[in-house]
Amino acid sequence: MMKVNNRKIIASVAMRTYRANKKRNALTVFAVILTTFLITAVLGIGISYWDAVSQRAIRMNGMDFDMELTEPRADQVELVRDMESVKYAGVAVKCAIAETYRDVSLDKTRLYWVDDTCWEKQCIPAYEFFKGSYPKKEEELVLSTAALEDMGIKEPEIGMELPLTYYSLAEDPERQELEDPVSAQQNISKTFILSGYYRDYSRKQYGYVSQAFYETTGVKQTDFTQGALKITLKKSLYSAKDIMNIQKPLDLQDRQMLIADDHIMQNFIRMAVGVGGLLVMILISGYLFVYNTLYISVSKDIRYYGQLKTLGMTSVQLKRLVYLQALWNSCIGIPVGMALGAAVSAGLIPTALRLIDPGMSGMKIVTVHPLIYVGAALFSSATVIAGCRKPAVITGECSPIEAVSYTGLTKGREKQKERERGLKDMARRNMFRDRKQAAVILGSFFVVLTVFLCVNAVIRGNDAKNILNQIRSCDITVNNQTTLEEKLPLITEERLDEIRAIEGVKEIRPVTTAQMIVPYQEELLGPYYKRLYQSRYSPGDYEKDIEEYKKDPRALNCIFDGRFVGISPEEFRKINDTLGGNLDQEAFEKGETAIAVPFWASAEEAVGKKIRFFLPDGQEPEKEHEITVAATGESSMDGGNVIDDPSEYSGGYCPNLLVSNTLAKKLMGDNILTEVVRIEYEKPYDKETEQAVKSVFRDEKQISFDSKLTRYQEMKSSEQQVKVLGGGLGIILAVLAILNYINMMAAGVQNRAKEFATLESLGMTPGQIRKVLVQEGLGYGILSILLSMAVGLPLSYIVFQSVKVYNMGYSLPVLYNLILFAVIIAVCVMVPPLIYQMTQKESVIERLRADVD
Fold it and tell me: Which residues cross the membrane (predicted)?
């Protein structure tokens, strides 16, 4: 039997068929464009959004590294740098504290020396900007913008003189110090020259000095808590085994510690699952875009193909005809979709950002990676092939008689016997008479809405204001910097009343503090001290130190002291909520109970017991007081309830004791000193209220402010980038949901043109048909929204928990979602009758005679 090459004939028939079905093919091309645009734009913007969020997290940390080795020896530094898994490692040493600038008291500006690796590879990448150069001469200095603002310098200039008073952090062999040295250190005056300044989002008042200056301080990188080796790995993901592989050869001694996150791999897997789930849903929605249009037109296509089959065309030839048309649709739709995706993600969004913030003109805002476009093209092509596979298979398997009579409807046993009882019943039956078609329409709409809910939850979770609200319990903190030394009453009751009277202030939470001497109490704090000495923060020889402590609680330079902290009722309620809300506020306010706040170890044995203490600055310095410990916050090292200690300064190894301000005033009398005031505004981030609060202390040079608004303003550029990228992602998904519905309904109305003509010939008016279409659209819209809320809300919670970086509470932008749902309902109601009116303009007879196009 001789084989006839009829490929040209098949291609010719396919071309004529393709040209004859212009409207149907236009809808298919539109679906392909949507799919390609979805993958290109969403992936490009999504990756850029995540990069922006990650960069902001690094800037909030102030340095970019993976692990930290404390007090590193020279041999350990070389050993780490030679490790195969280590990319680079830089040394940082805290060597001095700047206390005053001219006559302005500073809030402990820490001065560091870092080597070239740490500065260039780990510091610079974490800054929003850096101007100048790293110090080379002894008097040169680099400062953060936060440190400069603390000095009152708002417009720094390279080369300006900075008269500072500082003290060295060289270890005192006669005592073991805590985080900062005591005031007995000798102060040194020196005029520095500003060689550079930078801004990150940590709000840390840091400065960097030259190696020449560092050598004059006498501090060594092996001094306790001062030196650190910042380690950056070649692979940022590491396991507990990787940590041990690095730590084992280092031969750690004394209180050295390799600080690393041993949960980073689990957190990454959790995040990958959440992001991967979102990506799968996005790909599913892209698949359904194309599949909808192809599946809806199956009925008409197969009847036409059945006619071709009666003329002798084989099943293989019919399948080839179907795939040829799909190929042509792809050749048109995929390039256009890629071009639109590139225009929006790499053109429109960066342009919008640069218009908002001209300072971003030189920044790379959106990641444009060739793999994104290649992946979008391959996925769209595969989607088109998969979408037309079913009509191709049905076409090849149906006999000519079956193909001509094919309707594509799933026949229900009961529904065929139902009588139409009005337009509502007709609309309901039209929605579900083809179950697969209804499932595809609802499924595609549902998937996009669900993805929109998930993406919105992630975007809201990464909002800078939400993050700052989570990590900060008030809008501004006013700090008395003389608390430990001069102990000046700078925050008076008159000033507190003045703050309360400011319009816009919601509440103020004053915090009073005093030195507290605590005699050794075995049952109360004995186990706590044992755990403390077993940690890396152990102050020395446990047996020797405790023996001296038992003899004299003031021994060892009072390192076993604590702070007696008075708090307001509002502060108590916040702390009580953190602890589960089980504490008796009345007993606390009466001065019967207190809350112990340990530092590095658990003090759970103290709960329910009475603690004895003295207040050297109180009304009766030699009188021993006692109070019941009602609760204790767990150490962050133990993963318990970490209380936000409202005091700024630590006293010693004894836990701080939180009591009511009423009791503090009773025991301290006129000697009571307000260390901190925490202030909340009626409207968070209110500039006018903040200015009014700061004006209360405008003449005080020894008062410092830690403002949530200031920190947010420093993050402005980064936050605008995150918001525009996240908002663009949400808008694209919302628009795609609407366009997808329009596409589906246009295809549906086109394919039901002959049905509508038949109904009109039987007496149904065009107005009644429009009402049926309105009710169908309303039904699809309501069902899709209900399904997306039923599944999308819990799913968005799971995705949010998987990808959150900070300990954020789950929330959704309710207003945005309600607006989208309202728009969707409006589109669902308006689009079907509008498409019907635009496409069905011919007379009934002409539409009955014509093939469905």
Answer: 268-290, 326-350, 370-388, 438-459, 724-742, 778-800, 815-836
